[in-house]
Automatic annotation (TrEMBL), chain A:
Top-level taxonomy: Eukaryota, Metazoa, Chordata, Craniata, Vertebrata
Protein's GO biological process: fructose 2,6-bisphosphate metabolic process; fructose metabolic process
One Pfam family from the record: His_Phos_1
Binding residue positions for substrate: R261, H262, G263, E264, S265, D266, L267, N268, R311
Name of the protein in question: 6-phosphofructo-2-kinase domain-containing protein
Catalytic residues of the enzyme: H262, E331
Entry's transmembrane regions: none
UniProtKB/TrEMBL annotation, chain B:
Keywords: ATP-binding, Hydrolase, Kinase, Multifunctional enzyme, Nucleotide-binding, Phosphoprotein, Transferase
UniProt-recorded name of the protein: 6-phosphofructo-2-kinase domain-containing protein
Highest taxon in the source lineage: Eukaryota
Function according to Swiss-Prot or TrEMBL: Synthesis and degradation of fructose 2,6-bisphosphate.
Assembly and oligomerization: Homodimer.
A Pfam family annotated for this UniProt entry: 6PF2K
Length: 474, 457
């Protein structure tokens, strides 16, 4: 926070201009405007995982990284195991991890340092906000090294420890993510499991979990038995608070999330964006097919969510089951461009049309929203999707792109161009470290509403260049 | 689909068309646990206020209140002596009476959550509550507050106990002594929630006012929200300053919404605000604005860094943006009447309702709880929502709270509530407050509809 005195003005206030892309009001004299992004901390944060092998550290690291990036906090994970694989081309056996293997220890320490170095590069030089340091970090000594490193570099530290003694969970972990690891490519399943169990044993004797008394000045969350219980200590700031909230809402119970758009609408047919129109005849046909599809999927305890716009509600009505309406799932607000065709937008607002093509993620329609705004609006939906099990979300093109980007870890640049055609259901099933996607086209024709980024995004482009990629419509 | 006029007024609880799904299944009993002076009532009241604000009908039941009804005059700590059989009988009866009222709140008043505020320090007492809840299909979530920091406890006692009806005729030292002995009465029989024996229960343990938490078996959405909220509140003294932007050009012409700049008087206010803020000598003040020109212009005059929140934007009046009330009455008389009938839930066509606004503002409130000294420069409807949260105003009153231009409200949490100081910075401005008119019928005449419209150019 800058000193009051530094900016003291005795005369007239600064003139404001509205940034044409994001429609943000800023003073002309280009002083730093703090725009409410998620992370307003000045210090970057180092998240450090702690735990024996097969406790879900990498799963948590990847998921947390994906979530933080999606909500706009530049985050990167650093998996020390990867560094080790980079260093030690061939993994022979668990012997490498024996606590008395001096050679092994040296290499592992080097790898940890190399990773920390890259962390420093990412946070101090490359503009990263959060780094997730994914390793066992099971000794107090190792954690002390990291804390010191963070202090020297002005990073905050937040530990995420996963503690689990349930043999079923551990076995499941190993089957899901260890057997396919590069380490075990040449082993059969039994060999791999046997070796991995011995690997875990190597860590057990020296494992010093975070201690309520000894570590009372550290900031951390201890996750016990995959979320039955949490111990949270000294949450320092907003980002840490969000991280804790997120970690407390995720689970690993198998389930699927179905994403689809409303059936084709009357405005879709006319090539108009936004609005609140009803389903076209083909859209109604789709709704019936969706019902059949859902019934055939035989889903246990399916929850159905829609937006508060007529076309998603009409689609859900066909299913014949209770559904919940979320205003947050409403389509992106196109402001002054609501219900216009792209041709009309080009005619009336050629500048806006070009700006949007230049940066579709951050571009905010005049009196409307941007994809960036949408993501913020959808965050509670994502949080609740994490809590839930089987859910069908009937939504809209831009909304579906945002949700899909979250599940499939797509960047902000890719997000606005993800293909989400009408009359197609995406079934997302979390698996290993990611998400299996099955795309089911329900066989009912519809217009295409996907407009690719045209070649020419310059403000002075011709109308033809601007409208090159507009999909066909009535 | 229902006729469009009624759509935005349709509000049932479970198949509600509110901004968010209501997540209502079984009602939830939130049960406080802890020795006296550990902040249980503070947490109960605050949590109740928060849950009501976000739309979960909640009520707190303070067993101490029941006891004060039953035993008109409080003599001394001996009442709480575990050997005092007569008193034990009364105390048990009070707890039962409170439980019965909880049941009535759930079944007859459509409550969704009840906070059962008592010490509940023995396993036996908690077992009674658990079986009562189980019989009726209520979920139970325990909130235990554990604190052994003598300074915090002493501060608690000073802030809320000395002023209690129990000690109204005592002098401070006497009261302190008696209360300490009261705490001692509980200590010997206190059995905190046990991490092993109680591992199937859902609970949060709060240690030393939030430096550490233990969270066990969160069952559902509402418990997850409660935990998140409890982990974000603090008791560090601070003040929150709320103000609207300076008078704007559209304010002058009686038009709602829009994104206009400040009027000359508005600019004067901004300067006045800067002077006022400097005079308050606030430690590490954060300043927040919306994304709209008028709040940003106001903040610019302060000469300090500020953060822009889109969530603080004024309520979206949809098709009515930039209209005067007269124009709304002329073009959309039915909408105008519907709004007067239920101003909280009414959603402008292609716009928002106050109910939507509250949902939008929830992250702002959460961050306000985390922060210390903050100045929020916002808009009339937004201000009303924030104020309703801090002052515990119900949905019916919220849209009619008075939030005049050019007036700063300073809110300072004290005891169980909030001290409010209002500062009019002595710069004239139009009045933008429109009272609910006498006649809200759709068939009213324009004169009746426009009766309460404030003056403008």
């Amino acid at each position: 926070m800058l000193d009051n005195e530094e900016f003291m003005l005795e005369n007239s206030p600064r003139e404001l201009t509205q940034n044409p892309l994001k429609k943000i009001w800023m003073p002309c004299r280009n002083a730093h405007i703090a725009q409410r992004r998620v992370c307003m901390t000045n210090c970057p944060t180092l998240i450090v995982t702690v735990g024996l092998p097969a406790r879900g550290k990498t799963y948590i690291s990847k998921k947390l990284t994906r979530y933080l990036n999606w909500i706009g906090v530049p985050t990167k994970e650093f998996n020390v195991g990867q560094y080790r694989r980079g260093c030690l081309k061939i993994y022979k056996s668990f012997e490498f991890f024996r606590p008395d293997n001096e050679e092994g220890l040296k290499i592992r320490r080097q790898c940890a340092l190399a990773a920390l170095n890259d962390v420093r590069q990412y946070l101090s030089v490359e503009g990263g906000q959060v780094a997730v340091f994914d390793a066992t970090n099971t000794t107090r000594e190792r954690r002390g090294t990291i804390v010191k490193f963070a202090e020297q570099n002005g990073f905050k530290v937040f530990f995420v420890e996963s503690v689990c003694e349930d043999p079923d969970v551990i076995a499941q972990n190993i089957v899901q993510v260890k057997l396919d690891s590069p380490d075990y490519i040449h082993c059969n399943t039994e060999e791999a499991i046997e070796d991995f169990m011995k690997r875990i044993k190597c860590y057990e004797s020296s494992y010093q979990p975070l201690d309520e008394v000894l570590d009372r000045d550290l900031s951390y969350i201890k996750i016990i038995d995959v979320g039955c219980r949490y111990l949270v200590n000294r949450v320092l700031d907003h980002v840490q608070s969000r991280i804790v909230y997120y970690l407390m809402n995720i689970h690993i119970t198998p389930r699927s999330i179905y994403l689809c758009r409303h059936g084709e609408s009357d405005l879709n047919i006319k090539g108009r964006i936004g609005g609140d129109s009803a389903l076209s005849p083909r859209g109604k046909e789709y709704a019936k097919c969706l019902r059949k599809f859902i019934q055939e999927q035989n889903i246990k305890d399916l929850k159905v969510w829609t937006s508060q716009m007529k076309r998603t509600i009409q689609t859900a009505e066909s299913l014949g089951v209770p559904y919940e309406q979320w205003k947050s799932l409403n389509e992106i607000d196109a402001g002054v461009c609501e219900e216009m065709m792209y041709e009309e937008i080009q005619e009336h607002f050629p500048l806006e049309f070009a700006l949007r093509d230049q940066d579709k993620y951050r571009y905010r329609y005049p009196k409307g929203e941007s994809y960036e705004d949408l993501v913020q609006r959808l965050e509670p939906v994502i949080m609740e999707l994490e809590r839930q099990e089987n859910v069908l979300v009937v939504c809209h093109q831009a909304v579906m792109r945002c949700l899909l980007a979250y599940f499939l870890d797509k960047t902000a640049d890719e997000l606005p161009y993800l293909k989400c055609p009408l009359h197609t259901v995406l079934k997302l099933t979390p698996m290993a470290y990611g998400c299996k996607v099955e795309s089911v086209y329900l066989g009912v024709d519809s217009v295409n509403t996907h407009r690719d980024r045209p070649e020419n995004v310059r403000v002075q482009r011709t109308t033809e260049d601007a409208l090159l990629t507009v999909p066909a419509h009535l | 689909m229902e006729p469009p006029q009624l759509e935005h007024l349709r509000r049932r609880r479970c198949d509600s068309a509110a901004s968010v799904p209501q997540f209502c299944n079984s009602p939830t009993m939130i049960v406080m646990v802890g020795l006296p002076a550990r902040g249980k009532t503070y947490i109960s009241k605050k949590l109740t206020r928060y849950l009501n604000w976000i739309g979960v009908p909640t009520k707190s039941f303070n067993v101490g209140q029941y006891r004060r009804e039953a035993v008109k005059i409080y003599k001394d700590f001996e009442f709480f002596n575990p050997e005092n059989e007569e008193a034990m009988k009364i105390r048990k009866a009070c707890a039962s009476a409170a439980l019965k009222d909880v049941a009535a709140y759930f079944s007859k008043e459509q409550g969704q959550a009840a906070v059962f505020d008592a010490t509940n320090t023995t396993r036996e007492r908690r077992a009674v509550i658990l079986s009562y809840a189980k019989e009726r299909g209520y979920k139970v979530f325990f909130v235990e507050s554990i604190c052994d920091n003598p300074e915090i406890i002493a501060e608690n006692i000073k802030q809320v106990k000395l002023g209690s009806p129990d000690y109204v005729d005592r002098d401070e030292d006497e009261a302190m002594k008696d209360f300490s002995r009261r705490i001692d009465c509980y200590k010997s029989s206190y059995m905190p929630i046990d991490d092993e024996k109680d591992r199937k229960l859902s609970y949060i343990k709060i240690f030393n006012v939030g430096s550490r938490y233990l969270v066990n078996q969160i069952q559902d959405h509402i418990q997850s929200r409660i935990v998140y909220y409890l982990m974000n509140i603090h008791v560090t003294p601070r003040s929150i300053y709320l103000s609207r932007h300076g008078e704007s050009e559209l304010n002058l012409s009686g038009r709602i919404g829009g994104d206009s700049g400040l009027s000359p008087r508005g600019h004067k206010y901004a300067k006045g605000l800067a002077t006022f803020i400097r005079g308050q000598n606030i430690k590490e003040l954060k300043v927040w604005t919306s994304h709209m020109k008028r709040t940003i212009q106001t903040a610019e005059a302060l000469g300090v860094q500020y953060e822009q929140w889109k969530a603080l934007n004024e309520i979206d009046a949809g098709v009515c943006e930039e209209l005067t009330y007269e124009e709304i009455q002329e073009n959309l008389p039915e909408e105008f009447a519907l709004r007067d009938q239920d101003k909280y839930r009414y959603r402008y066509p292609k716009g928002e309702s106050y109910e939507d606004l509250v949902h939008r503002l929830e992250p702002v409130i959460m961050e306000l709880e985390r922060q210390e000294n903050v100045l929020v420069i916002c808009h009339q409807a937004v201000f009303r929502c924030l104020l309703a949260y801090f002052m515990n105003k119900p949905a019916e009153e919220l849209p009619y709270l008075r939030c005049p231009l050019h007036t700063v409200l300073k809110l300072t949490p004290i005891a169980y509530g909030c001290k409010v100081e209002s500062f009019f910075l002595n710069i004239e401005a139009v009045n933008t407050h429109r009272e609910r008119p006498g006649n809200v019928d759709i068939n009213r005449n324009p004169g009746e509809a426009l009766q309460t419209v404030p003056d403008h150019i």
